[in-house]
Amino acid sequence: MRDGQQKRTALVTGATGYVGGNVVKQLLDDGWRVRILCRSSAKARKRSWGDEVEIVGGDATERSDVARALKGADCAWYLLHSMDSGSGFADAEAEMARQFGEVAAEQGVGRIVYLGGLHPTDSSGVSEHLASRVKVGEMLMGSGVPTAALQAGVVIGSGSLSFQLLRHITERAPTFIAPDWIRNEITPISERDIVHYLVKAADLPADVNRSFDVGGPETMPYVDMMERYAQAVGLHRRPYFTAPIMTRRMASAGLSFLTSLSDDEILPIFESVSVDTVVKERDLEELVGTPAGGNQSFAEAVRVAARDTAPGAYGEVATTFHVIAALWSLWAPGRAWWLPLNLTQAVTMVPTVADINERDDSQALEATLGFGPFSAPASQTAFATALNLDFNWIARRWPNKWTRGAWLLSSLDLARRVYKEKPLRVLGLVPYIAAQFLMVRPTRR
């Protein structure tokens, strides 16, 4: 905020989202009076800034709610977009943006700042999600309110779904068969930098009504992003291969099994990078300036985003399992055929425990799974118990039928835990549990 300047009022939509929440924090730091429009006031109050903002409970599709939120606002940040893939979502997004711009004009809002996505000059071949973002920007720029429609690619930050997917692919997949578009060019941007440009866009001259490309200093293929992420956090380089038959839908379904993201979250990300998403101009940098020290490099952005994670933890668990499997093979070579079934168990349980471990806090865990019986330590113990019972079977140490029953019950407990976290993963345990039923059932004499 400029010295001597009266406090300005900001209206932020999408404030409970990743980028929106960071914009709110920066606006408060800069001295703005911040108001947010959100459907869940309770959710907003739980944020670190919840007591420092004015919360307008409402829906961005309701004209009256939008009017209440925009009343008296100097600048409005439109940070809403859908991850839905149902029919008509693009038309609904365009109508919501048209109404928002119309109401903003009626309320005398001085500027709208919007975040869309980088796309080729010819946007005719882009995905429906990316085309929708382009259309939303056009609607806002045509509203009569000066609009800065920022266009960004992959955001490198701890709460970014795109970064989370990049991180999980690199950390959890020892190798990866990908569609050809993995070699498409991308200009990523750090969390710090995208927030800087979104906030500073409020200070643009009143006659500026246009889109702006924003991005970090480097452009690279998506596959290079994975390799450079591994290098930045100290992981070994992973080999990746492309296959023309691997569709975005196939890739997203496979990675949904391995990561904490759902298929519906992964597919729009893949669709957005299925074309080159590169910065073609840097006019906004000239108009508002870059952050202190310039735009962050990819490696620096990764180190900041990954500082509270354990990039090598997943690999350590996988290595431990392979060592145990090798020892089992030496101990009971006649039952080595059981090890592939143990592998399906590990492939299912390791990402499940990893996902629980990565939850933000115990309150989030308690709200979704129930803190005690489904916490990470409890799930780790359940996994270890199952492995121990497997070892006893391989070593032929079955004192009675009760031990065999405990073996089966242990596996059913694993299935219950996996289902609570991600139902699709239960399929990975089917061969393992089916084989146990055959082993445990009474034999006829």
TrEMBL record:
Which Pfam families does the record match to this protein? NmrA
Residues forming the NmrA-like domain are 7-208
Q: Which InterPro entries match?
A: NAD(P)-bd_dom_sf, NAD(P)-dependent_oxidoreduct, NmrA-like
Secretion signal span: none
Q: Which SUPFAM superfamilies match?
A: NAD(P)-binding Rossmann-fold domains
A single GO CC term for this protein reads: cytoplasm
List, in alphabetical order, the Gene Ontology terms for molecular function in this entry.
Answer: aldehyde dehydrogenase (NAD+) activity
Name this polypeptide is given:
TspO and MBR related proteins
- The protein's organism comes out as Corynebacterium appendicis CIP 107643
Lineage of source species: Bacteria, Bacillati, Actinomycetota, Actinomycetes, Mycobacteriales
